[in-house]
Amino acid sequence: MPTLNGGRRFERCLAALASQRPPIDALVVIDSGSSDGSEQVAARAGAHVLTIDGADFDHGLTRNQGAAALPDVDAIVFLVQDAIPEGDDCLELLASAALQQGVGAATARQRAPRNASPLTRATVARSPMASDAPRRTGPLPASELSGLSPRQWRSLLLLDSIACAVRGPLFRPGGYRQAAFGEDTLLAFDLLTAGWALAHEPEAVVRHGHEYDPALAAERYETDARFFRERFGLAVRPSLVQLAKGYVAGVLADRRWLIANGEWGAPGLLGDSSRLRWAQAVAQWRGSKGHLGALPERRQLPRPEELAA
Prior knowledge:
The chain is of the alpha/beta class. The chain is about 45% helix and about 15% strand. It folds into two domains: about 1-210, Spore Coat Polysaccharide Biosynthesis Protein SpsA, Chain A (Alpha-Beta Complex); about 215-285, no CATH class. Helix 11 (about 240-260) packs antiparallel against helix 12. The protein is globular and about 50 Å long. The relative contact order is 0.14.
């Protein structure tokens, strides 16, 4: 678990981890320069704490560093400091999902924090990671994977390091790629191309969500669109027509969710939705402008038949 000034939510996350049954084998926290005492809080909770300079943080390699400090385990669970597991069996359910036959990694179901704003709850609820139905993606034959378009690839790469579990013997030989963003998406690609399946376990639930204003949403969604353009050759929102469609679709989706959940009519919500979804759509359009990259080179990871041998 990477940390940086985790605050009270980090403390709540640690308390939830301490209540897991069976107890977790080990907890590694990688702190990148907290000034609020997060490092000491983690140590008091029994975590093995690694400290790095904030300038050295990498979304992929830093997590690899943490995983390398773990003992040999069947499944490695990756969390973030503000994802709070629900129930005392959350990690057990998540790890068990990753250890199903043919599955290489599993993602937990995400639900918004209980005190989240209506628009944050609407955003989280629309994510594939919020689904209350089990999902299994793959394994897919190489012939099918080779014919996928970049947009089809995007719909398959459903792994989220906010809360996911990966087979230990499968993760250790390769780990995450170096990445300033999208380390989990790249790992999903690596697992699928090595013949593994990805799972979504809705019974394993974490509470997580960010309160984005238009400026923060713009930064987040432009980064996401740039990542898929550069690393997968996909222009998420390539034209002004697509920008407009994305904006309208976002506002209408908010309206449907707000009505269905009794939130419609609250003062200012329609205006907040309009500004947020406009910022999101414009940012995706900006991130889609530029040279289209190509699919990542495939990595040599253990295949299911090799680990089973």
